[in-house]
């Protein structure tokens, strides 16, 4: 029995499989290299963020100052005052208003 043709066919099949694997690996490596280069190009076009030790600059209008004020919550109107029961969309957001008394609260001595 002549097995040379069978061995040649088996070796040709395995060579073809190896070639497919190598070509597939080259395609994957090429795609990864392209993705890294594309990411570097995109990163270069983004605005630069300050690095450690760098300070942001002041706005053109100058430094922003803090304001202190006492706030008190807005009261929810009662059903007796409005004549009907309020629904959630009529309540709105829980807002606050500037308090009439702007003095700082202090601890009373002895309390």
Automatic annotation (TrEMBL):
Region annotation (Disordered) ranges: 44-111
UniProt keyword list: Membrane, Transmembrane, Transmembrane helix
Transmembrane residue ranges: 12-36
UniProt cross-references to InterPro entries, sorted A to Z: DUF6479
Segments of skewed composition (Basic and acidic residues): 44-54, 63-88, 97-111
Top-level lineage group: Bacteria
Protein name: DUF6479 family protein
Organism annotation: Streptomyces andamanensis
Lineage, highest ranks first: Bacteria, Bacillati, Actinomycetota, Actinomycetes, Kitasatosporales
């Amino acid at each position: 029995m002549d097995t040379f043709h069978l061995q040649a066919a088996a070796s040709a099949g395995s060579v073809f499989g190896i070639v497919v694997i190598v070509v597939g690996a080259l395609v994957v490596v090429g795609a990864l290299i392209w993705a890294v280069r594309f990411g570097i190009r995109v990163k270069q076009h983004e605005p630069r963020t300050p690095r450690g030790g760098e300070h942001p600059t002041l706005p053109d209008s100058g430094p922003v100052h803090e304001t202190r004020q006492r706030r008190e919550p807005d009261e929810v109107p009662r059903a007796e005052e409005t004549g009907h029961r309020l629904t959630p969309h009529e309540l709105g957001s829980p807002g606050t208003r500037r308090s009439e008394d702007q003095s700082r609260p202090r601890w009373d001595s002895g309390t």
